[in-house]
Amino acid sequence: MSIKDYESVIGLEVHVELKTKTKIFCGCSTEFGAEPNTQCCPVCMGMPGTLPVLNKKVVHLAVKAGLALNCTIEKHSKHDRKNYFYPDLPKAYQISQYDTPFCSNGFIDIETESGTKRIGITRIHIEEDAGKLIHNESETLIDYNRCGVPLIEIVSEPDLRTANEAVEYVRKLKNILECAQISDCKMNEGSLRCDINLSVRKKGETGFGTRTEMKNLNSFKFIKKAIEFEFVRQVESVEKGEEIVRETRRFDESSGKTFSMRSKEDAADYRFFQEPDLPRIELTDEFINEVNAEIPELPDEKKARFMEDFGLNAYDSERLISNIFLSECYEEAVKNTAYPKILANLMISELPKIFTEEFLSDERDIPAKNYAEVSDLLGNNEITSGTAKLLMQKISDEYIEPLAYINENELRQINDGETLKKLCLTEIENDPKSVADYKKGKKTALKALMGKVMRVTSGKANPNLVQEILEELLEL
Amino acid sequence: MGISEKLMSVSDIAKGLNSKVFSAEEITRLYSKRIREIDDKLNAFITVTEDNALKTALDSDKSRKNGDIVPKLSGVPFGVKDNICTKGIKTTCASAFLQDFIPPYDAFAAEILKNSKAPLLGKLNLDEFGMGSTTENSFYGATKNPNDLSKTPGGSSGSSAAAVAAGEVPFALGTDTGGSVRQPAAFCGVVGMKPTYGRISRNGLIAFASSFDHIGILTRTVYDNALILSELAIHDKNDATCLNLPKEDFTESIFTGIKGMKISLPKEFFGEGIDGEVKNAVLSAAKALEKAGAELIEISIPHLNNAIHAYYIISSAEASSNLARFDGVRFGKRAEKYSDIMELYKNSRSEGFGKEVKRRIMTGTYVLSEGQKDKYYEKALKTCSMLRAEFENAFEKTDIILTPTTPTAAFDLGTKTSPTQRYLNDIFTVSANLTGLPAISVPCGRTQSGLPVGLQFIGKKLDEKTLYKAAFALEQEVEF
Questions:
Q1: Cα separation of A468 and A474, whole Å?
Q2: Is the ipTM of this complex over 0.85?
Q3: How close does chain A come to B466, measured CA to CA in Å?
């Protein structure tokens, strides 16, 4: 058997920090990046006699997440304590939800190489985050700022089969949560973290193998690498006739490998029980409806609309809607162009690298109308695609007006057949070797000649016309 | 013995202050002096805060002198059980673990009294973290019963009851998780109220078993008790389980009599295991109430006998979790010797907790563990809900339920009994904690050797008024 005969079965637990000003059980700020231990109080420090009081906004956002992810909302719910000792957990229990999660039975659709795939969401529950340990050479310090920051944990069904699907799932999830303003999903600040459950089996089998868990992955790159490594590791073990151990594994970012942390046998018994300091949560239909009404057009709806209204394919629509700024910009620009598909392609290929966080945080006006003008110029064959790319960049960096800019810099595409024919003849004369090669059947020689024509015209020649003319001349 | 002589009640003191018979300073000095004189014998106080009390007293006198409208309890001194947080004042839970713990905040109830300018005389001894019914499980040693120094004052609020009975304080705050206010009130001969769950905020009460923990009130008279509950039953937004109800005056209907009141005696509580003298005192008190116009009914609450098991399972389970925060990392005891974090936990907790606390943590951890949880914890929860239903059912036919508070009167300090035997002390009191119903213990007589006997009334949810009415009638009817 080779590795090609195996597939991985992957389920993800994604922890997402909710977008609230204050913590889940006290009034402390949730702002990221403050000096250590400046955003904590007796409640989030677990001091004796203190009590939690639930931040209502947390319930609101959790229900919103459930609705956005097509879940059933549990109207009668409660909090439970998950008991374990760790220095970053002041009360020595985490207030979470055990058997009555707010949301269950949802799904999201992702685009894969073989089309759209539905990924089930088992459950979503709310819980509090723990603090952060800072290890240095001689001691360990504790920063409690993050204690009590509200989280939702989104647990998927084991429906994912490849690293790419897993990445696509997280990307889509992030997209939906950002769009509905449930979370900032800043992976570099830890506000979206991912635990990966992975097992392997032979293709065609339906049962599950023994799974391992990799905790706290916080970038797409690491999610991908961890899955790829762990898949190969497990397949190799199975092939060698070894048994996979149910265990938690640590992904090492520098080596890209996973290492055993602890096996299930010495795993903690969390002794879950109902949190007696908080009353049960009863949600009304009215409340759920109110929250539902706040949910904006979600990425999938937008995607369908883009396909329908602008004639885009699923892939292009997905790329556009996957970035809020991109989709907003597209919607603004598309009003002003006769070529929505060209506009989409230009924006998908050029703008993501321009829309950096720095660029967007500048709060400048994004000149959507000018992008539309570029797509018209390209659509009308007035500029080459190379010029179009240049213009996209210049519009963003220097606020140029595309039409004025190409006139000033003489960037219009040369579409005149006679002019181009002259240029082509000159190059044919100057390069007998390429001509000879071409005639011998080496079709790539044409590219060399084309390149020369493009060079003498500073890239302005209409490449399709040049190709046609050269072929014509050389066939003679 | 002499030291349990009747002293002034809270309302006597409030009247005296308002009519300027004496000042808050004078009254505070009087009580402080008494504490100095007798507390060596009683060992009721862990911390005496005389200076703090005098400061508050002077402040209270000043506002009275200015003619300000003052709260009812302004200038009335009191004591607080040492598991209720007091800002800037050591709060130890009678545990080695917290012997140096000074909270940077007040419990909500303590804060109300502070804002009323009631002088805090000090912090009162208890069974460590409220776990026990003799006040012997204390890092600071046992408290003695002022009626007979060889006897236990009960527990865990033994010192709150003893201090009130001995006249060291006019009133005290206690806490009641399974009977910890009512049982010592019965043993010491004072009035002890555990109101409905959620009446008084638990914010700042160092948790033992959150579902059953209540702050309770110990006073010399029923009227005083109602007066203080009226001040403390205020909604606190920082306790999610605290009820948001309009403010009530519980003294209002106290004098209206009990004519036609239906009082039920559950037969389960008058069978085996109850001391003859206690039974007689309680039954003759019931007769006296009947004479005063009440109607006595015998009822049955079948699950009463299972209540004690459910109580110890759930309370230990919650305790094992509530006390996990005492890990030696941020506050309280930290062992001097440890080589890694696990040892820091183990050593700090081994050194910081007493035997009974460890027993309950272990029991609680066990009953929640995988494989055991269904057998114990889940089953106990079911008992709890059945008990609640049975009480609800009973209250359709009755206004109030009457029981002995304890199976016996106060027993000797140092009595060697097994923990499970000791747990039976709470057999009559725990059901009010499991159901959250209000319950009060009132003195109803004495044994031949002169020890007080307590009678318990259990009321409908939020119906403290009827409890006070019946308790007041009893106070009038029986010689104590």
A1: 10
A2: yes
A3: 27
